[in-house]
Amino acid sequence: MERDPQAHWLETETALHYARAAVRVGLWASERKMVETYFQPSDRLLELGCGGGRVALGLLQLGYRDLRVTDFSPIMVSLARAVLADHDESWEHLVEQQDATALTLPLGYFDGAIFAFNGLMCLPSQAHRLAALRSIHRVLKPGGILIFTATDREKGANAAYWAHEKSEADETPGDRWHESDTSPVFIHSSTEGETRAELAATGFTVLTCPLSTEIAQDGPAVREFAGETRFYVVRKS
């Protein structure tokens, strides 16, 4: 039976896992460095795929207040609201349900956007990734910045696995179902060249794309939770 890539994100147990991570893991050192380098506290920011509110909570604690926090999953939205409200009741209203591939937000409204922890790569196909990038491009101001992460199948900690992994004839290279603490989760591991091509096709210019280990030394909780990933910082052309 064909598996549904969205099912994992609609489960209560998955949402609880990410809500716990909001408190136990928090904002990564590498995420904080990239955010503080490219965004000002006064910027109007959009988060895609907020999960349990981990990044949103970290941003609010750093003094970023003009946030719109989104996820397509109703259960994720509900728990993210609860996580933020537990710290400050006024933060609950910042979270809303939105599909990253078809955002219904104002044109050219945001200074920046964040799609953390490989969220873009959890979309079920290249067509979905391109739709999300075009949708994000539409709601960013001219020159607006998008920061996201993607596991890299050619460099870093994942390279050895993919060097020996052979895709079936009908499979897209890099597509994989991973076991998790709840249910299997779909994720695509890209090459830098593939992702750069998708960004160019959707109107973005790459400013930098280091591996997380090249940015900062994340703590053991982050390494266990997330492993190694590549950051992309891109500008709306």
In brief:
The chain has helices at residues 12-24, 29-38, 54-62, 74-87, 126-139, 159-164, 192-201, 220-226; strands at 45-48, 67-71, 95-97, 110-115, 140-150, 175-178, 185-188, 204-208, 230-236.
Structural account:
This protein has 237 residues and is of the alpha/beta class. It has a single domain (7-236), classed as Rossmann fold (3-Layer(aba) Sandwich), CATH 3.40.50. It is 35% helix and 21% strand. The protein is built from 8 helices and 9 strands. The strands form 2 sheets. The chain has a 7-stranded mixed β-sheet, sandwiched between helices. Strands 6-7 form a two-stranded antiparallel sheet. Helix 1 runs parallel beside helix 3 and helix 1 (12-24) runs parallel beside helix 4 (74-87). The chain is globular. The mean pLDDT is 94.
| Shape-level CATH architecture | 3-Layer(aba) Sandwich
How many domain units?
Answer: 1
Q: State the major sheet.
A: 7 strands, mixed
Helix content: 25-40%
- Write the H/E string, N to C: HHEHEHEEHEHEEHEHE
Mean pLDDT: 94
Number of strands: 9
Please tally the helical runs, counting DSSP H or I stretches of 4 or more residues. 8
Portion in beta strands: 15-25%
* Shape, principal axes of CA atoms: globular
Kindly, what is the distance between the CA atoms of the first and last residues, rounded to a whole number of angstroms? 42 Å
By CATH reckoning, the class would read: Alpha Beta
What is the radius of gyration computed over CA atoms, rounded to a whole number of angstroms? 17 Å
CATH superfamily membership: Vaccinia Virus protein VP39
Examine the coordinates and then state which fold CATH places here, giving the name of the CATH topology: Rossmann fold
| Helix vs. strand class | alpha/beta
- In terms of per-residue confidence, which ranges show pLDDT below 50 for 5 or more consecutive residues? none
Strand order of the largest sheet: 3-2-1-4-5-9-8
